[in-house]
């Protein structure tokens, strides 16, 4: 009977040490999760903080027209910028008025 009590006490002692080890591991995992979450939040904040806009709409259209050698059409401007017809027409009108672009043929523009 004494032998059995000794074995039970030693088992209890071992279980307590294993429990402490498991708690330490759990605490480490929790800390790692917090770090991972904070890094993800930081990346999300940085992504939101950095403006993706490189210029005004007029500057974007002007850059596309300026880069094209043979001229660029309304459909290509619409596709590359994602702007609507009216917006592109207004920008083209403004650029023509400023003398920066000219019409090669109807609907196709190149730098002046």
Reconstruct the topology from this structure.
Elements: H1 2-49, H2 57-67, E1 72-73, H3 74-81, H4 85-98, E2 101-105, E3 108-111
Antiparallel strand pairs: 1-3, 2-3
Helix pairs in contact: 2-4
Can you walk me through this structure?
- There is one protein chain.
- The chain has helices spanning 2-49, 57-67, 74-81, 85-98; strands at 72-73, 101-105, 108-111.
- It is built from 4 helices and 3 strands.
- With 112 residues, it is mainly alpha-helical.
- It is 72% helix and 10% strand.
- It is rod-shaped and about 105 Å long.
In short:
It contains four helices and three strands; from the N terminus they run H-H-E-H-H-E-E. With 112 residues, it is mainly alpha-helical. Strand 2 and strand 3 form a beta hairpin.
Characteristic terms for this protein:
2 domains; mainly alpha
How many domains? The number is 2
Report Rg: 34 Å
Mean pLDDT: 85
CATH superfamily of the largest domain: Winged helix-like DNA-binding domain superfamily/Winged helix DNA-binding domain
Q: Which strand order does the major sheet show?
A: 1-3-2
* 3D shape: rod-shaped
Question: Based on DSSP secondary structure assignment, what is the total number of beta strands?
Answer: 3
Order of helices and strands: HHEHHEE
CATH architecture label name of the largest domain = Orthogonal Bundle
* CATH level 1 class label of the largest domain: Mainly Alpha
Give me the CATH fold name of the largest domain: Arc Repressor Mutant, subunit A
- Please summarize the sheet with the most strands: 3 strands, antiparallel
């Amino acid at each position: 009977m004494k032998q059995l009590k000794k074995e039970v006490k030693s088992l209890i002692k071992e279980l307590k040490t294993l429990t402490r080890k498991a708690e330490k591991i759990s605490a480490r995992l929790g800390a790692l999760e917090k770090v991972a979450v904070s890094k993800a939040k930081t990346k999300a904040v940085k992504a939101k903080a950095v403006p993706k806009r490189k210029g005004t709409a007029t500057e974007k259209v002007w850059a596309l027209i300026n880069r094209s050698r043979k001229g660029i059409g309304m459909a290509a401007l619409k596709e590359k910028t994602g702007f609507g017809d009216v917006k592109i027409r207004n920008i083209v009108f403004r650029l023509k008025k400023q003398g920066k672009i000219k019409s090669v043929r109807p609907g196709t523009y190149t730098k002046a």
